[in-house]
Write a structure and sequence with these properties.
heterodimer, A: MetI-like fold, 0% strand, B: mainly alpha, MetI-like fold, 2 domains, two-stranded antiparallel sheet, 2 strands, flat
Chain lengths: 280, 338
């Protein structure tokens, strides 16, 4: 009896040690990756990175045009994706909460949420780049919008579902039409959550590379023309990292550092928003 | 008609008020406008919801349309041929499909046990005040853009593996018949094993966070009952929590698998991009997504482009099935926990 108990105790101790080891293993990668980014990227961090254009091979330069390009494409994607996502989420949470349509859309949306992003790139290539005959910033923005939409739909629906029905009833009881009750009351109550959704969507797309490879392509030069190929930070990192030139590789590391910390800052902000909301 | 029913409560209550009837026509106009706006808003949201459906069908239609030339030319042979020759325009998808499946398999082989153990640690062992920070840190791992994994894998992880793990594997298993085949050839650093390991790191947070959520949803009464009859923490985990949460955990694993199958940039950096089916895990290979990312912009000729889109279609079909199964399972556990 005692021997068997000892075996069970030992097995338990081993399992606990393993789980602790697994956690340290998981956290270790985060430390290793962030450490490597700082180690290789921090040295290259200078004002030039943010004020100069991408250099030709073998010369020094910065990342100004890809940074601006990324900002433009991301803004475009959010501008297109957010209204569509919020409206669809509104329908699912407010009008058709128990509809068949809603459950189908929810299912499809969840699949879009984790669909391979390179497939989105192919899709936009087929419907925009091929018919237009050239790569463009527009196509890149739309491709990222396709990734933004499911994120926003999901958070909007979740957040609106959390709004207490008493608020809706109160709005209706003073004679507000449904649409006003939603836009003036429910949206306000769910605002923090919906902003979080947009932040998460931005975090998600600002590092996306695959959908941009054959939509907005790349551009060595300054361009704010949405009808022309446009540089973006992830694509430039991809190109520079795989090049044999030392200067380009070091710029790629610096760009990677910038992008990672921007993304992590965004997702931490988003989480903080939700957390402060939960506590209050 | 049902106009009276739709009027706001205020109007109905004040129906006979003289003041209201004086201003009646103006008021009716305002109400009409409101009703119009209301209906418009309702239809707008509905259209957006339908738009999400159209988006998915659009993706499918566009992919099928784009891949028709290749599928017509090669037929079923496209799936089973390993030839990939842009010069003679002979294309087969077997090598990328094989690479995709093998790298994802390696990833799941590592990420599932580790992810479950981390979830176990977070729900049962971790001190309360540490849970949130560790949980967030693991989720940040999921937030790191995939291109960062790629650049890190190429410059740091692959050279590291080339000098340490890969020679070790070769010398350990080199003499074992059967397994030796898996680790034959020189240690390149890049290759299918490296890609699989990086995918494992990327998938880990998915498995962890969903497992943690379903573990936490297990009713405390069940666990307390098990502790009450003298189970150890591990036994409670193994025989109570895990069976209860099984469907949800499998859903989380499938979700992770969906991500591993479709992951592009991280793999593209470290896979080596060789169109061949090789038994050795150390050999360079390719995956569907890496092939598309590498070759699409350089593809000349309609057939080449079409073959790459057909690869995209295959990837989409595979991930669609995996993700649909994942969602179905997660839906089931949600209903049960309710």
């Amino acid at each position: 009896m005692a021997a068997r108990y000892a075996v069970r105790r030992r097995r338990n101790a081993v399992a606990m040690a393993l789980s602790l080891a697994a956690t340290l293993f998981g956290l270790g990668w985060l430390v290793l990756i962030l450490g490597a980014l700082l180690w290789h990227g921090f040295g290259g961090l200078s004002p030039a990175v943010f004020t100069q254009m991408t250099p030709p091979p073998g010369a020094n330069g910065g990342l100004l045009n890809p940074i601006i390009g990324s900002l433009i494409i991301t803004a475009l994607a959010v501008a297109i994706g957010t209204p569509v996502g919020i409206l669809a989420g509104t329908y699912m949470a407010e009008y058709g909460r128990h509809d068949r349509l809603t459950s189908v859309v929810r299912f499809i949306n969840d699949i879009l949420l984790s669909a391979p992003s390179i497939v989105v790139g192919l899709f936009i290539y087929e419907v925009m780049v091929a018919p237009m005959g050239h790569f463009s910033g527009w196509a890149g923005g739309v491709a990222l919008a396709v990734i933004v939409i499911p994120v926003i739909v999901r958070t909007t629906e979740d957040m609106l579902t959390l709004v207490p029905d008493a608020l809706r009833e109160a709005a209706t009881s003073i004679g507000l039409p449904r649409s006003m009750a939603i836009t003036r009351i429910c949206y306000r109550a769910a605002r923090a959550g919906m902003v979080t959704g947009v932040l998460l969507a931005v975090a998600r797309i600002s590092g996306e590379t695959a959908p941009l490879l054959f939509t907005s392509l790349n551009n060595q030069f300054w361009s704010s023309n949405l009808n022309a190929p446009m540089a973006s930070l992830p694509v430039v990192i991809f190109q520079f990292a795989l090049s044999p030139y030392k200067e380009w590789q070091s710029l790629a590391w610096t760009g990677a550092l910038v992008i990672t910390f921007a993304v992590l800052a965004l997702s931490i902000t988003a989480r903080a928003l939700v957390a402060s909301r939960r506590q209050s | 008609m049902d106009w009276a029913r739709r009027r706001s409560v205020v109007d109905v209550a004040l129906q006979d008020d003289a003041m209201i009837s004086v201003a009646g026509t103006a008021r009716a106009k305002v109400l009409d406008r409101l009703r119009l706006g209301d209906a418009a808003f309702r239809h707008l949201t509905r259209a957006a919801a339908v738009g999400v459906l159209l988006l998915l069908s659009g993706v499918i239609v566009a992919l099928i349309d784009g891949s028709l030339p290749a599928l017509r030319t090669f037929g079923f042979g496209f799936l089973v041929s390993t030839r990939w020759n842009p010069v003679t325009e002979k294309f087969g998808a077997l090598a990328p499909i094989y690479g995709t499946l093998v790298t994802s398999f390696i990833a799941m082989l590592i990420a599932v046990p580790v992810g479950l153990m981390v979830a176990f640690f977070l729900t049962e062992l971790c001190p309360q005040w540490l849970r949130r920070p560790i949980g967030i840190a693991i989720e940040l791992l999921a937030g790191v853009p995939s291109i960062i994994y790629g650049i890190w894998g190429l410059f740091i992880f692959a050279p590291f593996l080339q000098e340490t793990l890969q020679p070790l594997l070769i010398s350990t298993f080199g003499g074992v018949p059967g397994i030796a085949l898996l680790f034959s050839g020189p240690p390149y650093g890049i290759g299918m094993l490296t890609a699989g390991l990086i995918l494992a790191i990327m998938v880990l947070p998915f498995v962890t966070s969903i497992s943690r959520d379903v573990f936490e949803a297990v009713p405390a009464v069940l666990k307390e009952a098990a502790y009450g009859v003298g189970c150890t923490t591990w036994e409670v985990m193994r025989h109570v929590v895990l069976p209860y949460a099984r469907v949800g955990v499998i859903g989380g694993i499938m979700l992770g698998l969906g991500r591993a199958l479709g992951e592009t940039m991280a793999v593209t950096f470290v896979i080596g991009n060789a169109h061949r089916v090789s038994a050795s895990l150390l050999a360079p290979g390719t995956t569907i997504s890496a092939t598309i990312a590498n070759e699409f912009t350089e593809a000349v000729g309609d057939l080449y482009t079409s073959a790459l889109i057909a690869l995209g279609l295959i990837l989409f079909v595979i991930t669609f099935i995996v993700l649909a199964a994942a969602r179905y399972m997660l839906l089931r556990i949600e209903r049960r926990i309710g």
